[in-house]
Each structure stands twice: as C-alpha cells, then as structure tokens.
Give the backbone structure.
Amino acid sequence: MDLFSGPHIILIVLVVLLMFGGKKIPELMHGLGKGIREFNDAKNNVKKEIEDHINDTSAINNKPTPTINNNAPVSTTSTQQVSSSSTDNV
C-alpha cells in the first residue's frame, strides 16, 4: 500500500487545514516560497563565486610564456677568434 495514494493525500490535506485554518495556509506557503527563493539565490551566488575564482586562477596559470627561437643564428665569433689565434702561433 502506497503512503501517498489518493485517500492518504486527502487525509493529510484535511489534517493540515484543521490544524492551521484557511487563512494561515497561504501565509505558510508564502513563507515557504520565500525561503526556497532565498536559498536558491544564496546557492547561485556561491556557485558564481566559485566559478569566478576558477576563471581567475586559470587566467593566471595560462599566461603566455616567452618562447625560445631555436632557429636564431648563434654567434660564433669567439670560436673563430680562438681558432685564428692558434693558427698564427704555428
């Protein structure tokens, strides 16, 4: 037997109506809706702050690094000077 079948729901609604009255139920539902809305707003704010922090961190970590040009000519003047001086002594 299912707890939330038709007759059980009707019984629960009647008990709630008797306990709180017809005027209090809309106030309770309004307060419940307002609480849920505030909870969702707070949840979205925390989620946005976390995403912003992740984006800031990834932006810092993804800075372009200087590249080394391996095709640049290498200066060989020092080796040429040494070789020319050694040939002069011979």
Notes: Helices lie at 6-61, 77-88.
